[in-house]
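Ticket #4471: structure output looks truncated?

Reporter: J.K.
Steps to reproduce: submitted the chain below (296 residues) through the standard prediction queue, then opened the result file.
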Amino acid sequence: MEIISEKRQDILFCSSLKDALFAACGKEASIREKHPVHGGDANDAFRLVLSDGETLFLKTNSRSNSDFFRAEAEGIAAIASAGTDGGLSFLLMEYIESARPSALFWEKLGHALADMHAADTTGFLSKGKYGFNKDNYIGAGKQINTPAWSWIEFFSECRLRPQFELAEKYFDSDMIRKAGRLIDGLDRILFEPEKPALLHGDLWSGNFLSDEKGQPMLIDPAVYIGCSEADIAMTELFGGFDRRFYDSYFEAAGMIPGYEDRRDLYNLYHLTNHLNLFGSAYLSSVIRGIDRYCSI
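Returned output as attached by the reporter:
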């Protein structure tokens, strides 16, 4: 069983938490304090205080879910570059002390995301332009990242189609036909980007924080190579970010006309994933999205 320990940009595979602590700290270390950290729903999280006073961040899950942490660690490493222990799998990382956001927090977040979207992506895929080297997770749901040369093909076959197929238990026959018609007509709505972008993949307000200096930090990625608009659309799904973020991002990256018309289609992927993970409370939003776009 592979267990993942991630310290800064290095990913290590360890067989126990004791081995991971040694690998991360470079010395014998023991846990002096263990404090729960709340906020996520897929894993248990803790702030560890070691015997020498150093702090680390620990996520745990069942042994069978260790692949979830492999995917997250690889996603963190990708962004940074632009086993078993008592029946548990775990991800061990540097603990980030959070402080009040700096005065230019939103502007820096916008510019940093634009820089990440502009980074070279050729090293992430051995073939194709879109996708990722391995499948990963969107929340607790499996995210398919099979490489493709076309963004429209990738969004169709690796984003909408798998989610729609999982959601068929909620759909009647008419909605199944509409979902199929939407997928078949994606080329009338989406476009092929001039340049592929490294995406965070799950960029909502719960997946960034301010570090001890008040600077923005991205967390809990679901990375893949795609169209930059998909990341921006996700930021608007649950209330949106501060206006300064969007002004700064589009100042650096520019906006392609028609984004507002495509935004809800990108977010239909996330809404259908929520439907599949959390149940019928999201069904009406998914139906509205399919009805809107299947007739274009």
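Triage note (M.O.): checked the attachment and the full token line is present. Residues 100 and 129 are 38 Å apart (CA to CA).
Status: closed, working as intended.
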